[in-house]
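#lab-general

N.A. 3:47 PM
ok so I finally got the sequence cleaned up, no stray characters, all 259 residues accounted for. can someone with queue access submit it? mine expired

B.Y. 3:52 PM
send it over

N.A. 3:53 PM
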Amino acid sequence: MPNSSRLALLVSDTERAQAAAEMLRQDHAFVPLDEADVAVVLGGDGQMLHALHQMLDAGRVIPAYGLNLGTVGFLMNQPRSSRPLAERIARARPLAVNPLAMTAFTGDGREHKASAINEVSLLRETRQTARLEILVNGKVRIAELFCDGILVATPAGSTAYNLSAHGPILPMGSAMLALTPISPFRPRRWRGAIIPDNYEIEFRVLDPEKRPVAAVADQQELRDILSVKVKVAREEQLTLLFDPGKTLEERIFAEQFQI
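B.Y. 4:20 PM
back already:
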């Protein structure tokens, strides 16, 4: 990435991120996002996801370099460095990420489409457990799953909600997706599956009136779901930038050895 790259600044509304942005503006002439070559994202992982979705919705995706001014910052770089920001970006290593494409049908007969960088999840809306049918490439794999929910996670998202739900950590480049149930009640012994990322996964809500289900693609939620299809969006590619030696691949690999 050349030092002459035009930079846009996308900042969360937290006090810490806003203060860091003011300091950066003293040394850099940032441009609007639609004129930039690189998006500099200040905040946490939520802000990075918001920025990536903002670019996807606008139809113009550029590399994103995050500085962690949030809590976890798994998708971000450390904010402090002896190197100037432009030099850090010029030295950064790119990582290509394909989001998930979700197609959902709701009770009013409408079709909804959304993207997810981390995961697509189905969640019960009431005290009643969800009752779902699961198909992979059109073949029924589980005819009836009673659960609080289920999610499909990418490798980039496998250490987020998926890991909290006891799903597997997927190395970047594994070409796999994690299919992880949330509090499965029946069948009790099913703990999920690892599925090739060129497969399509479909969920059908078997009792939508008595057991309503919501679908969430990262930060976008839909209610009154009848069915959901999930697959990797091959035509959409996002690029995250990381400091040398501190890439997302290494972080995800190291997470498997955390005690």
